[in-house]
Amino acid sequence: MTSENTLLEEFVQREYAHGFVTDIEADAIAPGLSEDVVRLISSKKNEPEWLLQWRLKAYRHWLTLEEPNWHNVKYPPIDYQASIYYSAPKQRPKLNSLDEVDPILLETYEKLGISLHEQKILANVAVDAVFDSVSIATTYRETLEKHGVIFRPFSEAVHDHPELVKKYLGSVVPYSDNFFASLNSAVFSDGSFCYIPKGVRCPMELSTYFRINAQNTGQFERTLIIAEEGAYVSYLEGCTAPKRDENQLHAAVVELVALDDAQIKYSTVQNWYPGDAEGKGGIYNFVTKRGACRGQNSKISWTQVETGSAITWKYPSVILQGDNSVGEFYSVAVTANHQQADTGTKMIHIGKNTKSTIISKGISAGVGQNNYRGEVKMMKGATNARNFSQCDSLLIGDRCGAHTFPYIEVRNSTAKVEHEASTSKVGEDQIYYLRQRGLSTEDAVNMIVNGFCKEVYDLLPMEFAVEARKLLSVSLEGSVG
Amino acid sequence: MLEIKNLHARTLDIEILRGINLQVAAGEVHAIMGPNGSGKSTLAHVIAGRDDYEVTQGEILYCGQDLLGMEIETRAAEGIFLAYQYPVEIPGVSNKEFLRIAMNSIRKHHGQPSIKRTEFVSLLKENLSRLGMDKSMMDRSVNEGFSGGEKKRNEILQMAMLQPKLAVLDETDSGLDIDALKIVADGVNALRSPERATIVVTHYQRLLDYIVPDKVHVLAGGKIVRSGDKSLALELEDKGYGFLQELALS
Ligand SMILES: Nc1ncnc2c1ncn2[C@@H]1O[C@H](COP(=O)(O)OP(=O)(O)OP(=O)(O)O)[C@@H](O)[C@H]1O
Ligand SMILES: [Mg+2]
């Protein structure tokens, strides 16, 4: 007699589809971290002096910090001297034409299902592809420039638009913000820069696709998005990495700035390699993402589907500074096998009538551990501010866990905070019911999980929702029966 | 179509079915009655394949095949349908989506292509109106927040859409108002055909006024203690189960 439970436990054996390695010559520096390494990275990128100084300040500050340990994840100490802090495909990309990009790289992205050939790209998505440390191609640049939208690798923006980069870099996530943000500020290699001018509704979805390829290499990219008054942009981020036995570090920083009446919608489908069924390998994803609703009536939404990484440490946040500004966080996080996630959000209400909504769906399978950590702060000036939080956890099998840590601080008596939480299990009776109607156990679990995530899926851009669904079913796919 | 021979089934703790013998031929409707806890639902679940129960003796042949060796979903695809005594809620999954995926799973099993959307919609519409159900129910999550009666109707809707060969209805009449009872009975009668068979589990002879059974069986203490025609149901209503339970114990 097979019980549903053993079936479910077998269920968490997963195949990672993006685990191949691209064999390409890389220009990498020796492992290790020092002021010289910071200088070397900066000089390789031909950076202006002010940026080098900023990096050095970050580096020196980082030396004074200790790795955080308040989160509910476990991992052996990371040897920061063993990692490589810069690796780039050897052939320097000529960004004017995709045809000049190394065909091996293009092939890699094709394999990942991300076509960089503009004519083949799904309608209306401009892609910036970041391979290890550098951005290799940004599509649709010309179309975007006609609208005044600047979308390009960070390293180029530093040269083309230094005034904008200087003004906003570190303005939301200062170099001193936290251990991983400081590290990133010191050694970040590339990333995407995006600027939407006043009154412009960005004519297409913008997307960055991150790929870690090289061994022992940390990826530290920075994304900076600025939406001027009345501007609108929807931004998508995707990520994958090869299967490797050792853990790799990914410590990114994303900063968003929304001015008066501007709106930024930031969606992530994170599918870094999660490690194998025994918990070997996988990406450590320690990411700082924060948006500032600087202007009145501005709005920032984070939507994320997190299925990958061995460890995820991530709290996309919104600082609601402008009056009537709106912050949203919608999240689906899956932990299967030995994956651990400590993720959530912070909503800091400063302005009047600010509103935030948090919907978090955590799914745990195998011996995965899923933690939701959410902080809602209502500051003194946040008159009539509102927050609604809902955290639901779904458990698949008996050996996984879900934990919710809400932190609430209210300093204005007119502000209101509502928090709801629930934990449910994928019921044997549900699976039995669906199988009795003809579905396989896998399809049944997928259906239940998709139903559980529906509220968040409904908010993802169409193509991403499809991808997210597929990803989730792969994540939970297993040798059933 | 269905041949149950000396079926014994148990949970870890107790033996529930203790030697069931039952034969249902294509085209027939059988009613199973019996006191609470006598094993009616257990029998239905063993037919459907629920793995909480271990079959320790006996066999079930379905269309000549060994049923007990088949997976739950294979049985479903081969035409076995159980209308649950307690239908299950699936939050976030719309009834419509669920029905479409269920139909396609079964079609796939038979090597048929997925149903066309338009075909599905018109079939659904037809069945909804026949069962007096509002189409807004189709956008709601499966059984979530449905009243007891609505859940039962929803089971019949699924049956009507999936067109099973052997339907087992476990107390589908409980919790239904009189009108709904007639509608559900119509639903069952609509499926009556020489190729299909139905087993209705019920406590009330009233249902059998609408779904006239070919045979009535009384299950008590895990055994079929009496079989007869429709008049047996009337007799039971008159005398209660007391006298039969004595039979079961002997
Ligand atoms: N999974 C189980 N674990 C333990 N006991 C069970 C289980 N399933 C059924 N039983 C027991 O087996 C007996 C038969 O249950 P069953 O549900 O088949 O009865 P029933 O005839 O359908 O009753 P009712 O008319 O109340 O629906 C009961 O005593 C019940 O408590
Ligand atoms: Mg019962």
Strand content of chain A: 35-45%
Indicate how many domains the architecture of chain B comprises: 1
Helix content range of chain A: 10-25%
For CATH, the homologous superfamily of chain B is named as P-loop containing nucleotide triphosphate hydrolases
Distance between the termini of chain A: 12 Å
Unreliable parts of chain A: 1-14, 92-96, 117-124
Model regions low in confidence, pLDDT < 50 over at least 5 residues of chain B: none
The small molecules bound here are:
adenosine-5'-triphosphate, magnesium ion
Separation, N- and C-terminal Cα atoms of chain B:
31 Å
User: What number is the mean pLDDT of chain A?
Assistant: 80
- Radius of gyration of chain B (CA) equals 18 Å
Global mean pLDDT of chain B: 91
Binned strand content of chain B: 25-35%
Total count of helical runs of at least 4 residues of chain A: 11
Describe this structure as you would to a colleague.
The complex is a heterodimer of chains A (481) and B (250). Chain A has one domain (2-476). Chain A has eleven helices and 23 strands. Helices cover 23% and strands 35% of the residues of chain A. With 481 residues, chain A is of the alpha/beta class. In chain A, strand 3 and strand 4 form a beta hairpin. Chain B has one domain (2-249): P-loop containing nucleotide triphosphate hydrolases (Rossmann fold). Chain B is built from nine helices and twelve strands. In chain B, strands 6-9-10-3-11-12 form a six-stranded mixed beta sheet, sandwiched between helices. A four-stranded antiparallel beta sheet of chain B has the order 2-1-4-5, covered by helices on one side. In chain B, strand 9, helix 6 (178-190) and strand 10 (197-201) form a beta-alpha-beta unit. The mean pLDDT of chain B is 91. Classes of the chains: A alpha/beta (481), B alpha/beta (250). At the A-B interface, helix 9 and helix 10 of A face helix 2, strand 7 and helix 3 of B. Bound molecules: adenosine-5'-triphosphate (ATP) and magnesium ion (MG). Adenosine-5'-triphosphate is lined by residues 11, 16, 34, 36-42, 52, 85 of chain B. Residues 11, 16, 34, 36-42, 52, 85 of chain B line the site of adenosine-5'-triphosphate.
